[in-house]
Design goal:
The structure is a homotetramer. With about 80 residues, the first copy, chain A, is mainly α. Chain A contains 2 helices and no strands. Chain A is flat and about 65 Å long. Chain C binds a DNA duplex (16 and 16 nucleotides) through α2.
DNA sequence: CCATCTGCAAATTAAC
DNA sequence: GTTAATTTGCAGATGG
C-alpha cells in the first residue's frame, strides 16, 4: 500500500519538529526563570531588598562582560604572537 | 582564639549566597538561550524562514495562555449573574 | 536693555514645557482612572462582583487583540512551507 | 404578544452596560496614553533624552528621601560584599 | 497592611 | 544602523 507524501508534508513535519524543539527549550527556560524568582522571594523573606540585589547582579554581569572582553583581547594578542 | 563576627558579616555572607545562586541559574538560562538560537540557525540552514518560525512559536504560546485561562467568558457571565 | 540667554536656559525652557505637557495629560488620565473606579463601585453597589467584571473586560480586550492579529497560524504554516 | 424577560436577562443587560462604560473610558485612557507617548517622541526629536525626562516627571511625584534611601541601601549592600 | 498581579517602561536582541 | 520585537524589571493598583 503506497503512500503519497508531498514535499509540503515533509516540510510541515520538519517545521513541527523545529517548533517542538524550541518549545521544549523555552519550557526549560521558564522553569529556570521561576527558580530565579524564588531565590529573590526567599531573599525578600530574609529581609533583603530585592531591587537592590537585582542591581548587584546586573552590575556584576556588566563587569564580567567587560572582563570577558579583555580576556579575549589578551588571548587574541597572545595567539597573534604565537603563544 | 575568638572571632568577632559582626551582623554585617553575616548579612554579607547571605547576600553573596543569594547572588551566587542567581548567577548560577542565569548561566543555565543563557545556555538554553544559546540552544534556542542554534535550533533557529539549523532551521535557517534547512531553508526555513526564521521570523516566521518565531511567529508560529509566539502564536502557539499565546493560544496556550488563553486556553490556560480555563474560565470562559460565558462561565464568567453566568457566575456574575448568579447562575 | 539686552538679555543674555544661554543655550541651557533655552533647553531648560523646553524641558519645562515638555514636562508640563506630560503632567497635564497624566492628570487627565488620572481623572479617567477615577471614573472607571466609580463605574466599578456603582456595579458593586448593584450587587455585581467587581473582580469578575474586571475579568470580563480583560478577556474581551485579549480577544480583540487576538483578532487584530489577523494572520492565522495556518497561514503562517502555509507561507513557511512556501505555499 | 407578551415577552418573557427573566431576571438573568436583566442582569446580563446591566453587566453589558457596565462593561461598555468601562471600555469607553479605557479607550479614552488609551488615547491619552498615546498623546503622552507623542510628547516624548517630540522631545526625542528635539534631541532630549526620553528616559531622563520620564525620570524628571516621576521624581516630581516621588519623595526625595526615598531616593536617598534607595541609593544608600545599594551602597550598603555593595560595601557589605566588598564591591 | 500585605501580598498578588496586571500593565508600563527599559533594555536587549533581531530583522531589514 | 535604525527600526521593530521580545524579554525583563518595576510600580501602581486590587483584593483579601
Amino acid at each position: 500500500m503506497s503512500e503519497v507524501i508531498s514535499k509540503t508534508d515533509v516540510a510541515a513535519e520538519r517545521i513541527s519538529a523545529f517548533v517542538s524543539r524550541v518549545e521544549r527549550l523555552e519550557a526549560d527556560k521558564d522553569v529556570i526563570a521561576k527558580d530565579i524568582k524564588e531565590v529573590y522571594l526567599e531573599a525578600k523573606g530574609s529581609g533583603f531588598d530585592v531591587p537592590t540585589l537585582r542591581k548587584i547582579v546586573a552590575l556584576r554581569r556588566k563587569d564580567k562582560d567587560k572582563r570577558d572582553e579583555e580576556l579575549s583581547l589578551l588571548e587574541l594578542y597572545m595567539s597573534a604572537i604565537g603563544m
